[in-house]
Amino acid sequence: MPSFHNGSVELSYLDEGEGDPIVLVHGFASSKDVNWAYPGWTSALTKDGRRVIALDLRGHGESTKLYDSEDYHIGTMAGDVRALMDHLNIERADMMGYSMGGRITAYLGQRNPERLRNIILGGIGMGLIEGGGPGENVASALEATSLDDVTDPVGRTFRAFADQTRSDRRALAACLRGSRRLMTREEAAAIAVPTLIAVGTTDDIAGSASRLGEVIPGSQVLDIPNRDHMRAVGDRVYKDGVLEFLAKRP
C-alpha cells in the first residue's frame, strides 16, 4: 500500500479508479479498509467512474502511531488530508467523512472550501456542534488491561472493536482526547460547499441530522433507516443516496 510523509508522520493511503476524485476520511478507531474497502464503498465508487482516495489517519491502520493528544487536533488531521491531496496533485475533490472523519471533512469545508466540490458528512449530525458520542469513558476503556475490566457499555463496544481490528489502543486513546474540538454554530453555518448529511435513524452517537441540516445552508439530509452508528456505514440506502447526490452535483 502506498504511503507519504506529512512532516514526520507517515500516512498510508489507497488510490484506485479513474475519473473525478473523491477523498474518503474514516472514523475514529477505524481505517481506510474497515470503513471504506470492506463495506464496499471503494468498489461502488470506482464502478461509478470515480477515482477513490482514502487514507489511514494518524494513529490508525498502517499510519504512524502517536501518543500525545496534542498531535490529534482536528485541524492537524485535516492538514494530513490536505497534504495527501497536495501529494497527489489534486486541487479539488469531493470528500466524504464518517463520524470523526465527518468532523474533519466539515472542518475542511469551512476552512478550505476552494479544495472541495461537495462534501458528505456521514455518521455525524448535530453532534458536530453539541458534542456527545465517545468520551473519556471510551478512552479509559481503551487503556484498560482487558475487555473484562470495562463495564461502561459504550466503552465496551469501542474496546471490542479496537481489539477486533488489532488497533494500537494507546494511540487511539490519545486521538480521542485530542480530537474533541467542536465546531461552533457560526462555523457550521459558514459552510458553503454543497453538503449531504447522512445518519442512521437509530444512531445515538451522531446527533440529529435534520437539526444540523437546518444550520448548514442548502444542505441535504439522508436518513439511513433502522441503522445505528456502526451498522449504517455499509448500508445500501447510504451508498445509493451518496451516488445520487454526487450525480446531481457539478
Description:
The protein has helices at 32-37, 41-47, 74-87, 100-111, 127-130, 136-143, 153-164, 169-178, 185-189, 209-215, 236-248; strands at residues 3-6, 9-16, 20-25, 50-55, 93-98, 116-122, 195-200, 220-224. It has 250 residues and is of the alpha/beta class. The protein has one domain (3-248): Alpha/Beta hydrolase fold, catalytic domain (Rossmann fold, 3-Layer(aba) Sandwich). Strands 1-2-4-3-5-6-7-8 form an 8-stranded mixed β-sheet, sandwiched between helices. Helix 3 crosses helix 4 (100-111), helix 6 packs across helix 7 and helix 6 (136-143) runs antiparallel to helix 8.
How do you describe this structure in short?
By secondary structure, this protein is an alpha/beta fold. The chain has one domain: Rossmann fold. It has an 8-stranded mixed β-sheet, sandwiched between helices.
